[in-house]
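Is adenosine-5'-triphosphate placement plausible here? Inputs below.
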Amino acid sequence: MSALIEFDNLHYTFPGSRMPALRGATLRIEAGQRIVLLGRNGAGKSTLLLHANGILRPAAGQVRLNGKPLEYTRRGLLMVRRQVGVVFQNPDDQLFSASVRQDISFGPLNLGLSIDEVRHRVAAAADLCGVGDLLDRPTHALSGGQKTRVALAGVLAMGPDILLVDEATSGLDPWMRRQVFAIFNRLVERGATVVLATHDLDAAQHWADTVVVMHEGRVAVAAPAAKVFTDPDLRAQVGPEIER
Ligand SMILES: Nc1ncnc2c1ncn2[C@@H]1O[C@H](COP(=O)(O)OP(=O)(O)OP(=O)(O)O)[C@@H](O)[C@H]1O
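Reply from A.M.:
I modeled the complex. Tokens:
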């Protein structure tokens, strides 16, 4: 059976950079997984996630969604973004509308849904993320944690099968962090996959079922979380990436 999403030997170098950010990154992700993506600063985690919904296009290699190669056309990318949601590291890269309501509505409107359906999705996603009372606020006047939750609501309103979250949970207070992880769990129970790129080893040990470690633009390890932290061979292989 084909994977939900597959990164096959991806190579990518940012324009103007001499160092490749991805050097043959390969990873297979199935439905219903809780994945934590670890790796030192600059290992390539964000770059890999930006390939998942076609924001970046690999110089070589292929991204496949349900076995089909991504199509980098307007139509192809819209289809991908319906299924693959990314919450960026910096929510300011994601929020660009005048109000929170407009921002969360943007994705579902782009899907061509009816106004009623969009309203329903926006209200449900805002409620889930605890930003229902912020809907009429300008996005620039929010705190960092509020911006993160609005960005998450905007992605959830699209109803993704796979949610990729780039180090966005670190700025949340402990209460909100628990809420956000509860949202991730609900998505997974529904059959979606959540991938969290983070330096949060607690999330890797206590939340993830699968831990993926990137090193210098490649996936060095992809294994059950319990194994990564206990198997001496894997531990040695992962080395400083997971040492506290
Ligand atoms: N916009 C960019 N332009 C040029 N180089 C970039 C850009 N973004 C990232 N890079 C480079 O690509 C490599 C991979 O970076 P990436 O952001 O994917 O790492 P990361 O694992 O997400 O790191 P971090 O843990 O610091 O977020 C690094 O060498 C980085 O300097």
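Short version: The mean pLDDT is 90.
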